[in-house]
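Example record

One chain of 196 residues, shown exactly as stored in the release files.
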Amino acid sequence: MDFESKINIMKEYAREENIPIMQDDGIEFLTSFIEKKNIKNILEIGTAIGYSAIMMAHVNSDIHITTIERDEARYLEALKNIKKFHMEERITLVFNDALNIEDNGEYDLIFIDAAKGKNIDFFNHFEKNLKENGYIITDNMGFHGYVEMNEEEIESKNIRGIVRKIKDYIYFLENNMQYKTIIYKIGDGIAVTERR
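Predicted structure tokens for this chain:
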């Protein structure tokens, strides 16, 4: 079975099981960015079933990814998928809460796609691992259009809470004097952050 077919099966599984994976134009943006910037070493926070890690690794055979997942079912599914694509040598999967991990690696790219309410914590915890001219990319800045809505219009208290945390993160990025951030309205909203 070719790469495309295997990816489509993964996407179908994610849809059926209601597992959030990156939208098509989001993943396209991310993989093009990796290619354009010649990124080789990536830390991903939030593996889910391994979809974005596999897509990123597929860009170039000398890319290495360390990816962290705390949900056991998703971690096991990701392990299975990484094996299916024969990428065990290039994708290192870590089963843990990202904030419990002390990583000494240096990365060209840190990709944050995990619990939205903890984006600031993830950023602060891992920025020391970012290479001098590296990038931090964060997904779900638009959170399915909710971020642009009036908070009173959002019925779910849970979603209101997540939206507030994302807005706090956007404020944190925009007011972080060490970094500059551009938020692209692509996929579910993607923030690209680099040192000034």
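Notes: Residues 157-174 form the longest helix (18 residues).
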